[in-house]
Every structure is written in C-alpha cells, then in structure tokens.
Fold these 4 entries.
Entry 1:
Amino acid sequence: MLSKLNNPASLLLLCLFLFLSGCSASSNSDSKNSLPTEASPALHKLTLMLDWYPNAVHSLFYVAEQNGYFAEQGLDVDIRMPADGNDGLKLVAANQIDLALSYQPQVLMARGEDIPVQSIAAIVRHPLNHMMVPANGDVHSPKDLAGKNIGYSSIPLYEAMVRTMIKNDGGDPQSANLIDVGFDLIPAVSTGKVEAIMGGFINHEALILAKEGHPVTSLNPTDYGVPDYYELVLVASEQGVQESEDDFKKFMTAISKGQQFVQENPEEALSILLKHEDQTSPLDQEIEKKSLQILLPLMDAGDQAFGYQDPASWEKVHQWLTENGLLQTEVKTEESYINL
C-alpha cells in the first residue's frame, strides 16, 4: 500500500476521491437539514397592540416572548405600541390587528356604538385609575371637592366617575369644577392648578408625584359608588374570536405562563421588560419595580384561571354605564366578553 501511495498519480486519485466523498456527505447533510419536518412547523403570526408604551403591566407579554412560551404554543407574536391610546380598539374592530389591550368600560361603550369587539381576558382585575389629592391638602374625601377644581383628561367616563364619587360621599357633584388638563395631570396637581385629578394611575402618576416631592392620597373609586371594574382587558373582534379561537387559547396559555414567571421572578421579569423600553418614553427602574409590586395582587384571579372574567362584574359595570348615560344603545352584556 505504501509503495502505491508514493506514486504521484495514485496520490492525486486518492485526494480526488476523498474530496468528492466529502462533498457528497455535506450535500446529503444539507439536504436533510433543509427539509421541513413535522417537529418544527411554521409559527402562526398574531399581532398584539399595547394600550400605552411598554411598562411594568406588560411584563408578562415580553416574558412570554423571550422565554419561548409563545413559540411553545406555535405562535409568533408581534407586540406593537400604539400611536394613540384608542388605536388598539379601533384596529381590532377593523380586523387590522388580532389582539389589543383596552379597558372594560370602553369595551361596553364601543359595543354601544355597534363596534363588534369582545374581551377575552381580564389582565388587571381592579381599577388603577384613582382620584388623587395632595396628601397635605384639605381634601380628605370626594365630598370635600364641592366647589373645587378637578383636573381630568376630557374623557366622559372620568367625569362620570368624579360625579359618582362626590354624590356617593354625600357632596354636591354639580358644584365641582372639572377642568380639562389633557395629559398634564402631574403638573396640574403638583403646581396647585387643581385640587384633585382623575385619570392618574396608582402605579404610575402617584409614584412619580411621590418621587418628585408631591405625595398624593389616592381615593379608590370603588369605595365611593363606582363598580369594581377590570382596568385592563384583552380584546379581539367578534370575527377574530370566531376564526382564531384556538390561537387565542394558545395565546392565553402562553401569557398565563408568563404571568406565573413574573410573580415568581419579578426582578428578572423587569430586566426583560427594560430591554423593550421605548426610547421616546424611557422607564424609571425604581418606578417600574414599585409599579409591579402594586400590579401583581391586582392581576391575581385567585382560584380562577388567569384572565377569568366574572359575569357579575360585567353586569355591574353595564348597569353603572347605563345609569350615567354612557351607552348610546342597548348592549347585551353576555356578548361583550368570552372566557376561552
């Protein structure tokens, strides 16, 4: 054998044989790797629009994305931020996106305008929107606001909440002076322009005001006649529910797992969230940490599955909206939501 390999021609033939054999093996390997397999089917795409820029309440979605919980369910979820807070509901209704975050009263009000949307899950189960008054001021309960200025963001729902709270507390709701301050709620109360604000969230505005040296007392609307509503719900169109119910169930499985991770690993969950902060709305890590501490118990469904919606809650909110003239037409409550 050695004498044959010493022949230059024999060496050339051997090298050529080994080269061709290697190419053939590589080609076969590449061919096998490029073939689609049943073990790795294509992921089904879903679009989710947030209600606001990414913040602590959205941690479960980004955790589900990064930890592969969506992929486990065969989903590829595109998480988007709205240009306007009302975009999500409109785009879902038009079937331009699959899912959006909105608010329980807004779902009922939208259906009152014949907009065919349905809530498929309660994400935050209690109001975050509280009336806020300076902690060192002379307003201690809603009735003290008679004749005083209250800043709000020109949303009829907020005006109805203010009137309900003052009336329920024994004050005169018509004597309160509501001032539209747009989204400038923090400077309106911190500079003394108004004696109270409605539209600020206990996990955001209240924390920022405290950090800036303007602590506030938060008055929970549910203590003063406003029904205990779901602050944040996951919404789809009626058509979307009919056509994509299985995918939505898979989505719920993934975010339920995401929420469990957030509960068990809040600091790691926040680190995942912070990777997705919007540069136009940078996050304060200290604020978001405190925010998550406030949010977690308000997102807990207890003995029920995460996201469960209680029919009694929907009935109470529907009744209150009707009494306050916020529904343009008759709404069938049972058609406004679905537990998947």
Entry 2:
Amino acid sequence: MTANEKGKAKVEQVTGAAKEAAGRAVGNERLTAEGRAQQAKGDARQAKEKTKDIGKH
C-alpha cells in the first residue's frame, strides 16, 4: 500500500467518523449518512490497496 493512498484512506475514514458523530449529535440524518458513506469509501480504498500489495508478493 503506497503511503499516499494509505493516508487518503485513513483521512476519509476519520473524516467520515467525525461527520457521522456530528450528525448523530445534532440529529441530522443526512450528515450521519454522509459520514457512513465516506467511511465506506475509505474502507474500500484501503481494501483495494491491500489487494494490490498481496498481488506483489
């Protein structure tokens, strides 16, 4: 996993978690859903990069 892609994945996951928490705190369902979606995007990016790493070995 390249460091750049790993960083992007982590940023998306953390930002998504923050959005989800903020959405829940204020009762904003749209913000909560956006946070979950952003976390999923980060998870998918991380999984893609891990698959690339496995293919290199």
Entry 3:
Amino acid sequence: MRRAVKALYAILVTAVLAAPAPAVTASARGEDQATAGDAQRSDRSRPQTGRIAPAPAPSVPPVPRAPGVRGLEIAVPAYVWANDHMLSDLTATGPAASIVVLNPGNGDAPFDAPWQARADALRGGTTATGERTKVLGYVHTDHGNRDPAAVRTSVDNYLKTRDGRLHVDGIFFDVVSRDCGPGNATRDLYADLRRYVQDSMDAVDPAAPDLVVNNPGTAIADCYLDPARRTADVFVTYEDTYAAYTAGGWLGGNVFDHRSGYRAGSELDSDGTAFWHLVHEVPDVQAMQTTLRTAFERGAGYAYATGARMPNPWNTGPSWKYHPQTSYAATLG
C-alpha cells in the first residue's frame, strides 16, 4: 500500500511538472567472487565543474505499456566520472535508459555539485514507457561483511546532501551475498539496509521512489524476496559474458532454494520488474538483440548488453551506442 500511494503521488507530480530536470574483478558466480563493480577502474580524470546539458525532449512520444503487460527496460551501470562521455551519451539518448547507476569512487567519493548536476540531467530523460530515468548511487557491501555503519555512511553520501534535496532515486548495493546466512542473518542485514534507504529518502521527500537494487551477480536465494523481509526492489541475477549467457553460464533461474534448486522466480515477481541481467563481451548488434530477447524470456525486467570486456566492462559504453538498445527493448513485451 505504501509504495502504491507513493507511485500515485509520483504520477500526479510528473503530470504537473513535466519539464526536464536541470542541468574488476570477475563477475560474480558465487560468494568467493566479487562483481565487476567491486572496484571502480575508470582511467578518466575527476569531474570538472561546468554546465551539463539537460536530457533532450523525446523525438517520438513514448507509448506506455498497458497495465499488467510485462516488458523489458534498459538499466546501465556507469562506473565513470561525472564528466565522462559515457554519461553524456546516456543523457542525450532517447528513449532514455530506465536506470543509470552512478559510481563516484566506489560510492565513497563526495557526491558533490558536478555529480548532482549529472544525476539531475540524467533524471530528465524519458524512457520508452514515458517514465523518467531513475538514477541510483553505488554502494559496495563485501557480501555483507562490510561494517553496516560504513555502508550507511556511503548511503548518506547520496541521500544527505548539503542542499537538502535528493539527486538520486535510490541505492544500488553491489557485491551482495546470494545466501540467506545462519538464521537468515545475512538476508536480514540487507533488509535493514533497504529500510534505512527508504526511511532516509522519506525524510527528505515522501514521494521519492526509494528504489533499492541488490547485485549478487547470480541467482539469489528466494529468502531475499520474502514479502515480510524483502531486501530490494530489483536483483541483478546474472552478470557475466555473452558466451556464458548463451551456453552453460545460465544456472537455470533467477532464484534458488538449496533443496529444490533454481527456478524463474516469476511467482515472487508480480509486476515483472524484480530481475536484471548484465551481459558483457557481446560481439555485435545482432547478439545484443539476442541478449535482450533471451533476458526477457528468462524473466528479467531489466537488462543491459555491452561489447566491453573485463577487467571492467562498465566504464565505457557499447560500440552501438544506447539508442539501438533502448529502442529494441521497447519492442519486447
């Protein structure tokens, strides 16, 4: 009910305020491997001050999906500095990506004026479904081993700003454990972090989306989607190469149970937006389309395909740019 009320409020606000906003390590296959976002590897210089162009108005009016129709949206981890051309390209793309993750120094560099300007510009983008792009702040968790107080401090870096405004729509928790832990202790730690994000954002803006993502990089234990202690709105349940995605690297589902194995998890995903697949080393545009179509068939609500390679495929954009990906994703559903 809480989220439904907030969603209705957000729709009303959007209708009134329609103007755009101003201006690795190996991918995870288990607990002993970190996801590609475990360390920011960008070679770009630190951001410079200066005006960032706002997102353009969409050239073709977006057509929202009918209620209850599942689709696929593009969500991009962008581990670069605020002035990088990757973020400039994302800001200028229409239809826009649905989610963009910003990563200032693994979440611990100041989320200062240049970052806030970039986030605001990205949030002005219009997606294929007629919504605004959601920007998330990156926070690493070391499989639940990082001190929770330090994690909350990283969260505060994005949510407790000097100007008292929110410049992000939520938090992307990376290097997340895939297992529940003894007595569900690890699951409960992430559930508490989600509540901290929600409460912090509500204190600033009760209408804020407070979107939380967990990235284990592989199928997640179904306890994480328990309605009473759910740890995130969206889970990255695949992060690896195209070769692995189209062969033996897909384990058979987005969620698992130690007794019964892997399954799609659709019964835990009423609106078709709970799962996100990240695929790198995608060779060409045709393979990009195959990746997106496969992600949709495997139950993902969000996906991203790039030809970039390890050690960090998230610090540069795909050679085919973003429009071919966002426009193709809009046809799935």
Entry 4:
Amino acid sequence: MARIRALRSPSVTPRKRSLRRTVDNSLSDPTASSDPRSARSRASRSARAGRMIVPSTLTILAICAGLTAVRSADVGQVDLAMGLLVLAAVFDGLDGRVARLMDASTKIGAEVDSLADAINFGVAPALIVYAVVLRDASSSAAQDFGWILALLYCVAIVLRLARFNTLLDDDNAPRYTKDYFVGVPAPAAAVMALLPIGLEQHFGSGWWSSVPAVGAWMVFIGLLAVSRVPTLSLKGANIRPSALAGILFIVAAAAALLFTFPYLLMIIIVVVYLVHIPFAWRTQRWAAAHPEHWEAPARDRRLQRRDERRQAVAAGTRRRGMPARGGRAPSTARLGLRRPQGPPED
C-alpha cells in the first residue's frame, strides 16, 4: 500500500504539468498543429500591418506641417510658413507613392489623404494669405471682405477635391483622360494662391498686395480649380534620353534660384504654369476629337499631331509658322517686300 501511495503522489512540478496539458491539447486538436504555411501567412499579415503605418504617418506629418505653417504666418514668420507649406506638399506627394510601392494602400489611408489635401491646399493657403496680406487692410470692412474671399477659395478647393475623388471611380474613361487633370489641381492652386505673398516678399508692397488685387486673384484661382479646364498631369510623363541634359540644366537653375531668390522661383513657376494651360486645352481637344487615338500613349498622340500639321502644311491648308530647317525662306511677295534694283542705266 505504501508503494501504491508513492505512485499516486504528485511527482511533477506545476510548470511541467502545464506543459503536458498544452501538449495533450495540441494532440487532441488537429487544427492547433503548427502549419508552416499558416505561420508564414500570419507573419505576412503582421508585416503588412506594419507597412500600412508608414504612408499614414507621412500624411499626418503633412497635416501637422500645414497647420504649423498657419501658426507661423500668424506670428509674422512668413519664410518659415512658406517652407512648412512646401514640406507639407512634399509629404503629401510621398505618401501615395510610398503606399503603392509598399503595397500598403488602404481605404482609411485614402480618406485621410483627401482630408490632408483639403487642409494643406485649401485651409492653410487661405489662412496664410489672410494673415499676411488681407488682415492688414486699413478698414474693418476691407478685412471682412478679404475674409470672405479667403473662404471662397477654401470652398473651391474642397469642391475640386470632391470632384477629383468621384472621377477616380470612373473605370470606363478613355486612357487619354489620365494625362490631364480636370481643372487646376489643389497643390498647383495653393502655390498660385500664394503668389501675392511671393510678390510682396520679393518686390515689396504695391498694387499686387492690395485687397482688390489679392481678392480678384484668389477668386480667379478658385474658379480655375473648380472649372473643367484641362491641365497636364505629369504622372505618366516619359523623359527622352536626348532631353535629359536640358532638364538637368533647368533643375540646376531652379535649385540656384531656390537658395538665392526663392520667391522669384515661385513667380516663374506660376507664370509657366499659367502659360501651359492653353497648350493643354488644345491637346486635350485634339485627343477628344480623335477616338482612334484614345488608348494610345501620350508620345504617340504627340507624334500624330505633328504628322497632321506637316500634312496640312504640305496640302496648303495650314501656313508654316517658321521656315523648315534647311528649307527656303518665305518669299518676298508673301512678306510684301520688293526685290532690290540696281542703279538706272544711262
């Protein structure tokens, strides 16, 4: 009997007992066995969850930079405010690309990015322009009028972003529409709206910093944002190897201006962007009128337009703007000139 009691007495520690219970449960439940594929799947989901934090973090940093730019402009630090707004634009441009590269695109990330665009390119520029230029008006009525104009610009940007989000869901749109924006995009509109500040910082106070001029400019930019005027999209642009040297030279010149005369660079960018709008409108109209080229890349459409211009010039239905390289100069009769004559003979 003593031997039997010794066998019945507990001879294992609590740690061993729990380990044995775990082993018995795993043996009784076949689904709890370790599967390498399920372990890899769990690790993949965990890694993707970690990757999804990176794009959203960039978006949150963009919002913080944009709102801090408003605070800096309110206390008179205009240069810091402009730099923070540029930093917000950089973060906003990176978050979407990082999400696609890391395969971390989520629905909540897209919604946060849209809200960040409304804050950084709608609310922040309107408040900065009001704090730096419009709030210093001589009368309270002018200040109230300036605030109304700032609100109109902000509302226009929000409406433009709402329309942009709806156009993203149109999968049946032709391919050529991907090369154009409908209206001026929000980042470009924000830079253009800040032009009066750039003019005031570079040239000093003048008519360009008055309430009527700034107000008219803000309304004009808001109308461009909500309009259906096509503007070029550089997302799918292809750079030819032969044009690489010229592009690098332009980048070097822009970098030199950025570190010496940043507001002059801003003025040049705004002027160039305004000049490109008629060109984008003309090319978009040509593409819409040629359904056979809707699915062709932008480079192929550009070559086709050039061939049509050459054929029209050869047929005589279109006049050549400049003489062809190596060709004859325009005739003197077309230019209204007379052939020089020698001295009269005796």
